[in-house]
């Protein structure tokens, strides 16, 4: 395994100019408010990645990778930005020069390097960042026989969102292998913050808030409203399903109904959550990357915010019957996710006063893939093939947290040809058994939709009850 000794180096960076101050972007302000609500457990928002280096290309040493990390810091302003105290809400300061500490960990056996790297990434992300006096990135290198095998990264959510992390990993790989990540990045977080306070930005924000106002006057106050048992310790648990069957079925449904795979998963999560509470209106808050313009697609910053997905359900209908309306609801949700958090808070307070209750769905969906790729064309998988693939699906625990400011959070990532879908839930409202049942139900729902074996939506109920699984009336397989 790893040597007990830990070495360290520094990745030095320098660009022209002086330190520059600016307000936070809307996305940064939203995550800053979430961090303050979640502290001291705000390490929950940290993001980690492991980049394998030894698998492809020539061997590289520590000096080479450290230099690439310095160039990465120079390329992306967000990595050179810290917070500055300033009244109720901090400012951000972009620094032109500095040095990033880089931890070096030796793997005695190359066979152990991947395990060492995974443990290193977990450790780097396990503690909250110092938002004011440290860089928003932590890095460690796993080395064997003088060559770098893996780079472990932990990123602060104030610096970037999940989309930006994938851009960073891509750029670091290119810097290590080619010495360049392409054309310079010309837009940074400070530019975004200035644009959002312009007349155009403010109009866009008001249009987004109008969507929230329309629906927050009518939707149920909370998706999961009833305490169903004693919470576990830690209270918030994550369960993950890794499924090739779900990936193939979601592709088939998306292709057949001319929607995106992500929209299929979003609609499935929303429908199942609504039916769990016996509701006929599905409400979920998707995390939207807000990178619809060409100049923001490769921007490393915190642009993502919550949108609002609302879909009225017909208990007699099938899931695929809803997909045209779900696609339109998803597009409206994506357009509703770029707004001033302070104006959003004021709107929420006004609606809560009018309705006599706070409207808090506590239910979110986050597709963390860099690209929602189009479904592969070709014949749909057969029912027998998908049923056989389900036998290889893995359902497993994936950690816990003392507190997060939500009751249900679904995250989607790619894992080879499979989808890895995790749900983190408040076990007072969603016991671990219910979280497991929900993931089984999602796979079941989409496989049924892909193979013409659907159940009426009214038959989908009760997964929030302790021990209720499977969620559907009967399992496909």
Enter the CATH topology name of the largest domain.
Answer: Chloramphenicol Acetyltransferase
Give me the CATH architecture of the largest domain, please: 2-Layer Sandwich
The global form is: globular
What structural class results from the helix and strand content?
alpha+beta
Instruction: Provide the β-strand percentage band.
Output: 15-25%
CATH class of the largest domain: Alpha Beta
Number of DSSP helical runs:
12
Sequence of secondary-structure elements = EEHEHEEEHEEHHHEHHEEEHHEHEEEH
Number of strands: 16
| Mean residue pLDDT | 90
Low-confidence stretches: 1-5, 465-477
Radius of gyration: 23 Å
Distance between the termini: 41 Å
Can you give a write-up of this model?
The protein has 477 residues and is an alpha+beta fold. It folds into two domains: 182 residues, Chloramphenicol acetyltransferase-like domain (Chloramphenicol Acetyltransferase); 243 residues, Chloramphenicol Acetyltransferase (2-Layer Sandwich), CATH 3.30.559.30. The chain is 36% helix and 23% strand. The chain contains twelve helices and 16 strands. The strands form three sheets. Strands 9, 10, 11, 12, 13, 14, 15 and 16 form an eight-stranded mixed sheet that branches. The longest helix is centred in the C-terminal third of the chain and has 20 residues.
């Amino acid at each position: 395994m790893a040597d007990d000794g830990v070495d360290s180096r520094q990745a030095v960076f320098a660009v022209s100019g002086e330190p520059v101050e600016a307000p936070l972007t809307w996305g940064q302000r939203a995550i800053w408010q979430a961090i303050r609500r979640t502290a001291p457990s705000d390490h929950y928002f940290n993001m980690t990645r492991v980049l394998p280096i030894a698998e492809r290309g020539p061997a590289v040493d520590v000096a080479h990778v450290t230099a690439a990390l310095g160039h990465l810091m120079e390329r992306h302003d967000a990595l050179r930005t810290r917070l500055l105290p300033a009244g109720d809400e901090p400012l951000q300061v972009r620094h032109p020069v500095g040095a990033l500490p880089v931890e070096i960990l030796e793997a005695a056996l190359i066979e152990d390097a991947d395990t060492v790297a995974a443990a290193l990434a977990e450790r780097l992300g396990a503690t909250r960042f110092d938002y004011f006096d440290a860089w928003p990135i932590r890095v460690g290198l796993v080395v064997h026989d003088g060559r770098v095998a893996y780079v472990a990264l932990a990123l602060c959510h104030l610096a970037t969102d999940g989309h930006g992390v994938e851009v960073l990993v891509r750029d670091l790989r290119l810097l290590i292998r080619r010495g360049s990540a392409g054309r310079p990045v010309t837009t940074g977080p400070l530019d975004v913050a200035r644009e959002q306070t312009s007349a155009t930005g403010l109009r866009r924000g008001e249009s987004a808030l109008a969507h929230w106002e329309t629906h927050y006057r009518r939707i149920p106050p909370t998706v999961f409203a009833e305490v169903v048992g004693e919470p576990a310790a830690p209270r918030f648990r994550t369960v993950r399903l890794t499924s090739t069957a779900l990936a193939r079925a979601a592709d088939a449904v998306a292709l057949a109904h001319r929607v995106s795979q992500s929209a299929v998963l979003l609609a499935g999560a929303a429908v199942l959550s609504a039916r769990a509470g016996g509701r006929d209106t599905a409400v979920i808050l998707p995390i939207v990357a807000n990178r619809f313009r060409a100049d923001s697609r490769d921007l490393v910053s915190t642009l993502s915010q919550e949108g609002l997905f609302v879909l009225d359900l017909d208990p007699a209908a099938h899931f695929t019957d809803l997909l045209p309306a779900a696609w339109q609801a998803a597009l409206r949700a994506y357009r509703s996710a770029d707004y001033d958090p302070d104006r959003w808070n004021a709107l929420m307070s006004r609606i809560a006063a009018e309705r006599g209750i706070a409207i808090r769905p506590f239910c979110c969906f986050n597709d963390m893939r860099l690209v929602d790729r189009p479904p592969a064309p070709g014949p749909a998988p057969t029912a027998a093939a998908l049923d056989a693939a389900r036998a290889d699906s893995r359902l497993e625990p994936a950690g816990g947290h003392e507190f997060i400011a939500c009751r249900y959070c679904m995250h989607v990532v790619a894992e080879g040809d499979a989808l890895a879908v995790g749900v983190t839930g408040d076990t007072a409202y969603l016991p671990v058994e219910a979280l497991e049942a929900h993931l089984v139900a999602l796979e079941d729902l989409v496989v049924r939709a892909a193979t013409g074996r659907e159940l009426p939506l009214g038959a989908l109920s009760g997964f929030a009850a302790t021990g209720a699984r499977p969620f559907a009336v009967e399992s496909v397989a």
